[in-house]
Amino acid sequence: MDTDEVLRGMASQAVKQSENLRTAVRELTLGALRGRELTVREIKRVVKAVTEGVNLGAASSKVDADLVLGEAFAGMDEAVLKAVQANHLALQQLAAQGQSLRESHLKKALDELDRLEDEFVGAVKDATKKGSKQLRDQWASVLQRTQTGGTETAAEVERTLEEFSDKMRDAVRQQRRTALKAAEVMAENFTTLASGILIGLTEGLQQGKSKPGEKQP
Questions:
Q1: Are 59 and 130 contacting, i.e. CB atoms less than 8 angstroms apart?
Q2: DSSP letter at 36?
Q3: Are 14 and 179 in contact (CB under 8 A)?
Q4: pTM, 2 dp
């Protein structure tokens, strides 16, 4: 079964059924990200599929499309923010492993983060091309507001890049003096580490939720 197609269907249903669309889209997006390698490529795939599903739901719903798209984008932004935080914490863990992080790996991780927001917004834009002109115009309005006010994802990316610009220089200098194999192995498995951290970060979002049929206290 095509996981992206399933994701599109779930996003469409979320638009039609959810009273809190932002939360529904955030958790749907996070659920998809937790099941994949945490790379820019996979994040783009998830965002594109969710956006396409939101379009399908909005096109067949009588609710305010502008509100739906704004809430859906905010939910995806919150989910991608968690992915950036997971990468940030993974980088911190790697930096704490003796300082023999390989220059090329650290640079690649930071380069991916640096382009993540553009790729995130770009994936949304690509997904809107299949929608009606009205939906495309409404998405353009939503995305224009993000350019003005920025996204949570962009803010976290900037904080991460600022922190690790100095650490990268330190790691490069240290790499010339020593090479710790354990740290190199961890660097090679960076996306696996980040994916594990994302699961930990989002477990708290699931706590306190009632199981189906249970009453809230």
A1: no
A2: S
A3: no
A4: 0.77
Q: Quick check: helix, strand or coil at residue 151?
A: coil
119-150 in b/e form (b: 16+ CB < 10 A) is: bbbebbeebbeebeeebeebbeebeeebeeee
The answer to whether 86 touches 126, Cβ cutoff 8 Å, is no
Percent of the chain with pLDDT over 90: 36
With 0-12 / 13-18 / 19 or more C-beta atoms within 10 angstroms meaning exposed / middle / buried, residue 103 is: middle
CA–centroid distance for 114 within its chain: 13
Does residue 65 contact residue 138 with C-beta atoms inside 8 Å? yes
Start-end of H helices in the chain = 3-17, 21-34, 40-59, 65-95, 103-114, 116-128, 133-149, 152-177, 181-188, 190-206
Asked whether the predicted pLDDT for residue 146 surpasses 50, the reply is: yes
The candidate with the shortest Cα–Cα distance to 84, out of 38, 25, 118, is 38
Residue 80 and residue 43 in contact, taking contact as beta carbons nearer than 8 Å: yes
